[in-house]
Amino acid sequence: MKARNTYEQSLMRKSGVIAAKALKKAVEAIKVGVAELEIDEIARKEIIKLGGDLSYKTVPGYKYATCITVNEQVVHGIPTNRKFESGDLVSVDLAVVYKGWHTDCAWSILVSEQGIGDWGQLKKTKFLKIGEAALWDGIEQAVDGNRVGDISSAIQEKIEGSGYSVVRSLVGHGVGRSLHEDPEIPGFGKAGSGLSLKSGMGLAIEVIYTVGSPDVILDSDGWTFSSSDKSWGGLFEMTVIVGRKEVEVLTDWRKA
Ligand code: MF3
Ligand code: CO
């Protein structure tokens, strides 16, 4: 993984703004009765409108703008006409390519009809809070001189320290000229180990976790991974540029 020069970084930044705006539209449209394919369409339209293209088209055999997963599904869900129900835990994952530069991001939310706040929902809210916190803990480590293992162990500590599991077989990754580049960035590992980070590197940091078993199984559709024990899965991902002192987050949809 090469550090990107200032010009390359500026293109990644633009790619990230498009991804963040599309993720914002998608996340905000997730409501009871809305279908996964409608969310995919909203994201696709926004990406194209803003001058980007679908990065997932570069994955052989995949034609959607997003991956959408619900409840026990963890990653790589193909958008279908399934409609969201109150209490569903939904994750949207999307990536953009702009002038040849890729950015990748994902977020998870709880579909909830106003006024509902039973115990089951509170548990899901806590699960999501911890996943998001783990993402920011990992991101914070993406500074010059730190190592990949510092990101990994920060994520692992938060997730496992809260009693949840980090999925082992799916990892974050370098990103830039292509969607998936070196290095792999697991959500588990030893602080101080692994590749040394240099400012200018583009990383897709991902928190892929479950309430129960860390094992995932591939569904019969050939794409979707679900938790082996059917426990809830969550997914939080941002593309960042490693900084000298501070990391730059390119895909923060809440600021888009
Ligand atoms: N964002 C996903 C990841 O980094 C990529 C999904 S590729 C697809 O793992 F083909 F499944 F869409
Ligand atoms: Co990714």
Automatic annotation (TrEMBL):
GO terms for cellular component: cytosol. Its EC number is 3.4.11.18. Binds 2 divalent metal cations per subunit. Has a high-affinity and a low affinity metal-binding site. The true nature of the physiological cofactor is under debate. The enzyme is active with cobalt, zinc, manganese or divalent iron ions. Most likely, methionine aminopeptidases function as mononuclear Fe(2+)-metalloproteases under physiological conditions, and the catalytically relevant metal-binding site has been assigned to the histidine-containing high-affinity site. Keywords: Aminopeptidase, Hydrolase, Metal-binding, Protease. Residues 11-211 form the Peptidase M24 domain. Substrate binds at residues 76, 180. Its cofactor is Co(2+); Zn(2+); Mn(2+); Fe(2+). It catalyses: Release of N-terminal amino acids, preferentially methionine, from peptides and arylamides. HAMAP family: MetAP_1. This is Methionine aminopeptidase. It comes from Candidatus Daviesbacteria bacterium RIFCSPHIGHO2_01_FULL_40_11.
